């Protein structure tokens, strides 16, 4: 009843657009969190077929999933605990980000046990204050890395960092990060570290900060069609449509409480429509009495508290019946709500909405342009909604 339709043609379009924006730099398609909820393997295959040359993930499990699917492109992973053994990463030719001497020693141990050289990207903390070596730690990291490189245990493949705020090109913090990254790169050169890849740019930076592109860019949310810079439109196409079905309608009078609380009471005679999608499916609980869906070409508000498995929609006097298609969000071309609108209604970002779509929601991947790129494809494009009535 509730499903997520994944338009791989949109992924292809977005990848091509980002590759053009990167102006000659390589593209690492970030497919962490199961491709931001879109399905890591089909997204990765599509991105690689349309301009990406690298894949980025957080965990070893995510990287191994791609390798197990037969994907041989370079993969970078960047989150792991110091007590993890990374033998599997080394054996599967997965590049590993390192931000500490302890991390280097972990990888060196994996290299010794497997008899293979570990590929490393050294990460500098330039101001995000999450992963990465601080300016004070960076010299020791470089010294240890060169020793292990000279011993044949690691190959230094990249030097990289992560931007904290690339949405505003004039942000002073951004400028401080760029200076810090230049200093980290200079220190690496002085220490004899020559890596073939330097990378920094996230989605927003790919699209508007060419000075951050270097050898490789790392788009995430833009790959899936959410515009990363508030107030700017770059021509990205949202790839996911979350749809469901009306399973029950009832005509009620004024003064009728709806859902728990109740936090909503009808002020007129109206038709309520029950939709089997709740916060266990990724509908944000905070969106009750704020969000809208599209039924039969008309925007209708979500009323009352969002439950685990269902929401109630106020359909007014529209002729809604059980079995009608409900578009929770889509690409917006026909006026249906978008994931960016849902993020605004829920007080979050598109990343959280997309990655929050529950595992019990089936993903249906389809492509009209290149049907051979996916093994799970809808027989045709989803039926588009008629002209919407704006909220």
Shape: elongated
Order of helices and strands: EHEHHEHEHEHEHEHEHEEEEEEEEEEHHE
As residue ranges, the low-confidence spans are 372-391
Gap between N and C termini: 25 Å
Mean pLDDT: 94
Which percent bin holds the helix content? Answer: 25-40%
Tell me the strand percentage band: 15-25%
How many E strands? 19
Radius of gyration: 24 Å
Would you mind describing this structure in some detail?
Helix content is 28%, strand content 22%. It has helices spanning 8-22, 32-36, 40-49, 60-68, 87-91, 101-114, 138-150, 172-190, 203-208, 339-346, 350-355, and strands at residues 3-7, 26-30, 54-57, 75-77, 95-98, 118-123, 154-160, 197-199, 216-217, 240-245, 248-252, 257-258, 264-265, 270-275, 292-295, 298-303, 311-316, 325-329, 363-366. Strand 7, helix 8 and strand 8 (197-199) form a beta-alpha-beta unit. Helix 1 (8-22) packs across helix 3 (40-49). It is elongated and about 80 Å long.
């Amino acid at each position: 009843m509730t499903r997520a339709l994944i338009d791989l043609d949109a992924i292809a379009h977005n990848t091509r657009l980002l590759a053009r924006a990167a102006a000659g730099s390589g593209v690492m398609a970030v497919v962490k969190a199961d491709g931001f909820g879109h399905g890591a393997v089909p997204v990765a295959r599509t991105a690689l077929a349309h301009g990406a040359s690298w894949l980025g993930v957080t965990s070893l499990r995510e990287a191994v999933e791609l390798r197990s699917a037969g994907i041989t492109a370079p993969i970078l992973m960047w989150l792991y605990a110091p007590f993890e053994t990374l033998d599997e990463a080394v054996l599967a030719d997965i590049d590993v980000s390192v931000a500490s001497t302890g991390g280097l020693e972990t990888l060196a141990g994996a290299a010794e046990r497997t008899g293979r050289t570990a590929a490393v990207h050294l990460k500098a903390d330039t101001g995000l204050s999450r992963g990465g070596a601080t300016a004070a730690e960076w010299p020791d990291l470089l010294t240890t890395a060169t020793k292990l490189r000279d011993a044949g245990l690691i190959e230094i493949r990249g030097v990289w960092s992560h931007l904290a705020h690339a949405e505003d090109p004039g942000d002073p913090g951004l400028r401080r990060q760029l200076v810090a990254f230049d200093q980290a790169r200079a220190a690496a050169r002085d220490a004899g570290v020559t890596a073939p890849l330097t990378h920094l740019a996230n989605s927003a930076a790919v699209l508007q900060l060419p000075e951050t592109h270097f050898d490789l860019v790392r788009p995430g949310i833009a790959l899936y069609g959410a515009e990363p810079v508030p107030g700017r439109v770059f021509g990205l196409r949202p790839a996911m449509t979350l749809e469901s079905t009306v399973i029950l309608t009832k005509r009620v009078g004024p003064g009728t409480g709806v859902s728990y609380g109740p936090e909503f009471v009808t002020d007129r005679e109206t038709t309520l429509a029950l939709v089997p999608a709740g916060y266990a499916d990724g509908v944000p609980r905070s969106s009750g009495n704020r969000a809208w869906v599209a039924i039969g070409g008309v925007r209708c508000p979500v009323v009352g508290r969002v439950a685990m498995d269902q929401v109630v929609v106020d359909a007014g006097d529209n002729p809604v019946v059980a079995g009608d298609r409900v578009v929770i969000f889509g690409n917006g071309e026909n006026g249906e709500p978008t994931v960016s609108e849902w993020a605004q209604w829920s007080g979050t970002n598109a990343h959280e909405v997309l990655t929050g779509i529950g595992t019990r929601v089936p993903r249906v991947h389809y492509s009209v342009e290149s049907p051979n790129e996916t093994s799970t494809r809808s027989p045709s494009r989803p039926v588009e909604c008629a002209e919407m009535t704006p909220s």
